[in-house]
Every structure is written in structure tokens, then in C-alpha cells.
Amino acid sequence: THLKSDCYYVGVDVGTASVRAALVTRDGQLRCTAEEPISIWEPQADHYVQSSSEIWDRCCTVVKRVTQGVEKSQVRGIGFDATCSLVVLDQNFHPVPVNQNGEQRNVVMWMDHRAAEQAARITSAGHRVLRRVGGVMSPEMQPPKLLWLKENLRESSWKEAAHFFDLPDFLSWKATNSLTRSLCTLVCKWTYCPPDGWDDSFWTAIGLEDLLQNNYSKIGSLTCPPGTSLGQGLTQEAAADLGLDPGTAVGASLIDAHAGGLGVIGADVRGFHLPCEDQPITSRMAMICGTSSCHMAVSQPLFVPGVWGPYLSAMVPGMWLNEGGQSATGRLIDHMVKGHAAYTQLQEQAQQSPGENIYTFLNTHLCSMAKADSAVDLLGSSLHLWPDFHGNRSPLADPTLKGMVIGLSLSQTLDDLALLYLATVQALALGTRHILEAMRETGHDITTLFLCGGLSKNPLFVQIHANATGLPVVLPDQTEAVLVGAAVLGACASQDYSTIQEAMEKMAKVGKVVQPDHELQSFYERKYQVFLRLFAHQREYQALMDHR
């Protein structure tokens, strides 16, 4: 038997632009990590595609790298998370291209909005399954993408396809040969609803009755909660690819954001004087902030307009998940900063300051712009931004909304760039407040935020989230919480922990708590009132222009 201290789990995270792996100890410490880029092609506007063969290949590279220094037998389990992209394979499990001449490019990416029109049609059909997605079908879910393939690439893609996988399920299939899908993917992105399962009338109503064949074999006949041990563990072939032992336990996968949720939301918070300390896990919201952001809360089943869920067992087995989100967050900050006239000047100055990147430089620069003892936040009092440059996921569920900036002048200095950056971060934090209010109105009682992901490493982003919402923010001890969450799946599958709840409590740890500055309460109260008017006005402008 193993000395429990010497056992490890591998977490693999397939993000938008890279694959990462980590070797994680029994108590959730990351021993080492590795990262490899993956290609993104944009064959035409709003079409974003990848290759599942390339993605698996990169998974193998990073897993080999992180397990180099340990005995294979010490690796007790492996878990995968990935973006909720759509993988298409034929009956021999070979790639089926998802564009006209796509060769091996058989993955429709999560952020691909080619199926916006199909999504709108599915929404207007108004089927009961829509209740669980806040009433609106997002073009980032799978049914509209499947419908797009049937309507636009019937011969080359739809008729060839025998297996449609969510990317996290493709990875676990590749590792174990098991076709069992995770409830995380099927429930969140495919309208599956336990215990009843698929709703025949939905697929028939939207024109995809072909999927009912053979007990839904193309999209998944068997399901299990995340972290369930799949098949016989790693197959000979996958074990050779990954450099691990055959039979190593593999846990059913999670979508990347949900892995981040698992990596933070269950942490033991005793001793940090947090309002959620003596409250159930339902008083916590996990925010996974990267290219886009997801807002995860678990509870009894609550229906929140414009917020996805309630989804049973989609993140924590046996609990219902509500999931809000913002379609462009890290991507929006980059877009605003890099598109500004003073960006080259910013780059030059950041390069001259040792150890600074553009964001640490901007944060320091804002502090120097603020008056002696006044908060940086107050610099944003006359520049207001509505952040839906890529539409609104929650709580308005309106993909047609656009971004707005109010308060621009003719000046384009570095100071102006810094202020625009500040206003963008403030708008994103107010967007989180908007989602929180929608959740509160339907019965959620959230008292503490748990942040992880790339943006959680930006102290300004974190502090403004605390200030704008009035809630304390918990940062994880391991900044790569998504990788911890993926490793939790492997730990659970290995049966070293008996449940996901037990594994996440032992493996997720609090690193730091950021308290809100209560003196800014009235400032953010006013700024939030402006924020809410912005979208109301945008809709009025549209109505005026539509009125002929």
C-alpha cells in the first residue's frame, strides 16, 4: 500500500489557448505545472475552431512533463477539465471537420457564435427545457451548434458524424475508452436533466430528431456525476501516450470554470473571520475570472432569470448549481488597453520598470494619479462603461447588447488609458453586482466571494470587486485553483477520498482575504445606478432607431 503522503494526482486543464497540467499532492499543493499552447483558427468571422488531435497531443506532452520526477505508481488518479467546446468524430472516432475545408479542425470552440441565429430560433420555440437556462438558449451551448452543422454542413459534417462530445468528455473518453458523459457537461450545455435524462420533445421540436436514434448514442446514453471513476482507468494506449500506468483512475470531467469552482468553493475558512464561516456552502459564490467569467453558486433548486441552472450535480454532486457569467472580462480589459493610442507608450514604460507587466504598471500609475489619501476608485467618477462588448450572458441573457463608454475627451495620454482601464474593471465588478442582485432576488443568500483564475492575480480587480459588491473576497492559497479542481476529480476517482465534498475540503485552502472598503459604499451605490441606466438607455436608443 502507498504511504498516503507520497501519492499524487494529476490535473489537466484545457483552456481557450493552452493546455496545462499539474502534479498535485494529497493536501492540494501544486508540485509542478507545465503549459503548451494550442492553435485557434478563425476560418471566418465569429467561427473559432480547434483540433481535438492537437489538443490530446498537447495533453500528453504536459502530463509527461509534470510526472517526470515521480514513480508512475505514485500517481493515483487523473482528472480533466476543458472549455465547453464541441468535438465532432465519425464512426471510427476520426475527426470530422466543422467548416467547409477544415481538414482536422473538428472542434467548434465555446466562444464561436456562428449559431446565434439558431440559438434565437430555439429560444423563440420556448420549450420547457429553457427554464433551466434562464429562459434563453445561448449560442455558446451545444444544441444551436448542432443545428448549425445540420443546416449548413449536412453532407460533409452532419451525416459523417457519429459522436458529438463536449471537450471535457472527449478527453475522458480518449483516456479510458468510456463513452459515459459527465453530468457537468450534459446538464450545463446540452439540456440533459437528471433523473429524466434527455427530453425527446425538445430535440424533435428544434429539428434534431435524428439524435434520438439508438438511445441518443451520438450525444451520450450513459452519464455520471463528476469525479466518478470511469471504465477501467487509463487504457494501455492512453497510458503510453501520457507516460502513466494503465489502470490509473480517471475521474469524470468538468467544464473548466466548474473545476475552478471546485478548487475554491469548499475551502475550510475557519479562523479568517468570514461571514460564511458558520454558514452552509450555499452562502458562497465562486467566481472564475479569465478570458470570460463564471459566477457559481450551489443551493437548493432556485430559478434565476438570465442565470443558468438549477443544474443538479453539475459541479458538487447532489447539489444544485446556478451559474451566471460575463462573456468577455479578461478579453475586454485587454481589448480596451491594447486598442488605446497610448498603448505603445505604456509598453515602453512597463518594460523600463523591472519586474512590471502592463497591468502592475497601470495599477501603480493609478495610485500615483489618486489624491493623497483618497481611494483610486474615485478616479472613475466621470467615466462610465457598459461592458457587454460580446453581448450579455447574465443576468439579462441578451447576446445583442453592445459595449458603451460615456465620458471621453479628445485627450489620449497614458493617464487617459489608465482611467479607461479603471472604468473597465469597475464596470466588470458592477456586472458581478448585477448578477448577485438577480440571485438574491430569487432566494440566494451570498455573503462571501471566492475568486480564482487569471484576473484574480490582479489586486486592483480583486479589491474593486470587494468594494463594488460590499462583500469580502477570498483568494485561494494555490492561485491555479482550476488545476486543483481537476486534480480533485482524480483524487475522488482513486477513492483516496470518499466524496468530492471531502476531497475539496482537504485540497482547497484559503490564501488571502480582501475586505471591502466601506467608505466607498455610497460611491459604488451611485456608480451602480449609472450602470443600470446605461443598458436601459441602450435599449431605448435601439427602439428609437427601430421605430420607422
From TrEMBL:
GO terms for biological process: pentose metabolic process. The keyword Isomerase does not apply. Keywords: Kinase, Transferase. Residues 8-262 form the Carbohydrate kinase FGGY N-terminal domain. Gene3D superfamilies: 1.20.58.2240, 3.30.420.40. GO terms for molecular function: D-ribulokinase activity. SUPFAM superfamilies: Actin-like ATPase domain. It holds the Pfam family FGGY_C. GO terms for cellular component: cytoplasm. Residues 285-493 form the Carbohydrate kinase FGGY C-terminal domain. Belongs to the FGGY kinase family. This is FGGY carbohydrate kinase domain-containing protein. It comes from Myripristis murdjan. The lineage of its organism: Eukaryota, Metazoa, Chordata, Craniata, Vertebrata.
